[in-house]
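If you are new to this repository, start here. Below is one unmodified record pulled from the training split, so you can see the exact layout before writing a loader.
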Amino acid sequence: AKRIAVLLDKCESGNSAAWWHLTILMTLEPNSTHYDDELGSDLIVLPGWKEADLITRERIVEAAKRYVLEQDPETDEWLGTNIVYRPAFADYKALRLLLQEASDFVFSISAEVWKKWTPIILGYRYFTPDTEGKEHYQKLIKMAYDHAPNESIQTLMLLIDKENMEGEHISIIDKVAPCWDDRLANALLVKVKGKKLKPNCMGYLLRELLKHKVVEAKLFAESLIPLPSPSGEKERLEAIVAAHMLMAHTEDAGWSVVWPAIQQDARFGQDVISRVSYEFARHADSIGQKLTEEQVGNLYLWIVHQYPYAEDPKYEGFHS
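And here is the target side for that same chain:
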């Protein structure tokens, strides 16, 4: 408590940067020998907040306000890297605290302030997975996008490139779900068409565009499925991913394009169907709801031919 008081004095004396040290200090119990979870974003669950009296809590809130208004995120030091840059992370903690304890202040923040902190709001990787934490995160994402759309999209594109470079999954796209509009859709469409994404990463963006019924995205996906099927490894995987996304996320399952490709190349069809069946098994939807009776019948016959019942594996005991 004494150390918290010292840091609050510094904040109030013009050194608002002391806030980020304060957020870490608040993780301590009186008898702690090391800092606790400094990546968590909810300060009101920390010992430093719980044990503080009302006046101290008010001082903490005021220190958070000063930090948001006065400090710089130094984005070049960490954005696009795996560096946990504590001064920037501390701003997200400040914004979440203010959203909980001084929401009127958050709604009064100027566009210029939102612009400088938008990268950390989008890039904050460690937020509480509880429902309340997710709701606060989505509110801040939406407010940042509303006040700083260009900065939000620029940051999003950079983080997409980072995830594309590091793996086969684009998770950042889920964070901007509350922000969907034509501007965001157009930016994602340009990224998808840029041909710099790995096929599976492209699929995550294509999924969102198709779910939002972006016509150009459907046309682009269909263009990736030529006849005969591509022979190049990347082009072939792009075609498989595109067919999967069309079947799963369009009203007609992209059938006029996907079905001829499946018929002509059995191996291509198996790769597509295995992906589609896995997704529908998890989400309890039915491809049959999208097809006519004749189309369902043709698909059934094709599947029975490719996967004969006699060759089904036999499992002993429990399995899923």
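Two things worth knowing about this chain: DSSP finds 17 helices and no strands in the chain. The first helix runs from residue 2 to 12.
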